[in-house]
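Memo to structure team: turn this sequence into structure tokens by end of day. - J.P.
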Amino acid sequence: MYFFRKYKNRMMVTAVAIILILIIGFTNKDRLSVSTFENLMGNIFKPVNKVVYSIGNRVSGFFSSIKNISRLSEENEELLAKVAALEDENRDLNNLIGKYDFLKNEAGLLQNTSYDLISAQITGKDPGNWYDVFTIDKGLNHGLKKNDNVIQGIETENGVIEEGLIGRIADIGSNWAKVISIIDEQNKVSFKIIRTQDGGMLNGKLTIDGTIEGYLFDSEADVIPGDKVFTSGLGEVFKEDIYIGEVAEVHHDDEELIMRITVDPAINFKKLYKVLVIRD
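Reply from structure team:
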């Protein structure tokens, strides 16, 4: 009631104005000119018409804006979905590029090796930066057993794919196996220098720069950095002629009368995700 009393006069004027406008509209339907009174009323209510027209445009624009916002929201969701799909494709592509060398070498080795090989995925590893002890997804059910040699395809300088030594199976279950690599001190690997056939032993100790410590049986052996190192087959744990790496450094230990070396392994023991196991 308070609202009606306060705005009663304005409401009455507005109602009268609307009625007059309607009357003028109906009476003006078939005439070419308007009367003086109609002209006067038109001039009086012209501002009202402008206000009503302006409000109508604004209301129309408001609902049009809501419609545009809804459309833009849908387009934005579509674009976000496309961006997410492209990011997934890019990630898959980068993943494939990162594994390209391994996949190429694995395929080359599987085609040219005389060994019975089975591919295995790494499913876990011991804490640390290196793959010194890790688990694979193959086991007894796949024809594997303890001490089976674990390798990877390695491309040499002349483009030949060699068997690169990773380690051996130390423990095994139905569908899993634990691998100890040659950079773990639990492994002792007998080797030979391919150029001179001098033999020695790697003790699994890893230096700060990622090379493996070892020594030669002959303290006067002719060994130089860059010499190729292969397994010798002594001890019957590791098969003969599996590539280990290159001699990095040579040290003559005068006190122990022994020649010590470090070997740069052919395998990158910081980046492993699949391996090959030799089945006997």
